[in-house]
Amino acid sequence: MEFKGASILSISQFERNDIDRIFRVADRMEPYAQRQKITRVLEGAILGNMFFESSTRTRISFGSAFNLLGGEVRETAGFEASALTKGESLQDTARVLSGFSDIICLRHPQSGSAAAFASSSRVPVINGGDGSNEHPSQALLDLYTIEKELKGRGRQLDGLRVAMIGDLKHGRTVHSLCRLLMLFRHISVELVSPRELAMPKELVEEMRTAGIKVDESDRLEPSIAHVDIVYSTRIQEERFSSKHEADLYRGRFRLNQAIYTSNCEPNTVIMHPLPRDSRAEANELDCDLDSNPNLAIFRQTDNGLLVRMALFSMILDVTHLVEKYATEVCWYNPRLSP
Length: 338
Fold this sequence. Notes:
Blueprint: H1 16-28, H2 30-33, E1 37-39, E2 46-51, H3 57-68, E3 72-77, H4 90-97, E4 103-108, H5 113-120, E5 125-130, H6 136-151, E6 161-165, H7 172-181, E7 188-192, H8 201-209, E8 213-217, H9 220-223, E9 229-232, H10 243-247, H11 257-263, E10 269-271, H12 297-315, E11 326-328
Parallel strand pairs: 2-3, 2-4, 4-5, 6-7, 6-9, 7-8, 9-10
Antiparallel strand pairs: 1-11
C-alpha cells in the first residue's frame, strides 16, 4: 500500500510486504524509543488524540510515539469532554478537528466509527479501536512482538502456532490479529472460549478459507499444550449489558505458573493486550508468572511504541529524514545505566 497520507483503519488494507516494511521501520526507531537519541523530524506537527472511550496504554503510547518524533499532542478523553454530548455528529467533529491536526488517532465505542470519521477528515486517521471491530495498531505490535520472540528461537512467522483465550467475541485485538495472520503460511490457531463468547463465525470461516488451521474449544489445558504463543484476553465488561452478565464468564480461563509448567512447552511465549484483570475473581494471568522470562506482556507495550512511531513516520513521509534530524540525549537516562 501507499503509506504517505493514508489512514490506517483496518488490517484488510495490508499485504504481507507492507507488514515487513512497517516492522523494519520500527526496528530503526529503537534508539529514539530508548532515549539514546532525539529526533525532531516532526517538530511543529500536531497529533489529535481523540479517545471517546477509556484508555491508558493506547492513548499514552500514541502520544509518546508522536512526541518522540518531535511532534506535539492535543487530546480529548471521553464523551463528556466533547461536543458529541451536545449533539454534534461524528462527521462534523472530524471536519473540525482535522483542521487543528496533521494526523488523528481515534478511539470510539461504535464499530465502524473510525471509517465514518475518516470519511470526513481532512487529515489521515489511525483507528485506535472502534468498538468490538478492530484495533490495527495493537495487532501490528502483537505480531511484531511475536516475530521478535520467535527470532530469538531461530523461528519465523510462517508455521506459527498460537492459542487465543478468553472473550473472543468482543475482543477487537484478537479480531485484528486473526486477520493479520491470514497473510502468513502454515498458521495454526486454537480458539479457547466459552461457547457464548466464541470468535465470530464469519471470521473463523475467513481464517479457514485463507488456509489457517483453526480448532475451537472450551478447555484450556489441552489447547495450550503444543503452541508457540498463548495469547490471553480479558472479559470485555464494557461490551456486556451489565457487570453481572460479564461476571458469569470472568475467571473461566486462568493461567498461572503451575498450569503453564504442566501443560506448555518450555519456551511458550505468554502475551496479553493489557490491561490484565488481576482481581481475585478474574486473575486471568497470575502474578506468579511475572518472573517467567517467557511473559512478554511488557515487551509488547515497549514494541507498541516502536510500531506507532513507524506508522507516524511512514504516513507523514519522514522515514528518510528521521536520522537527519537526530541529536544526542543530554539528560540522565536510566535505560543506559549498567
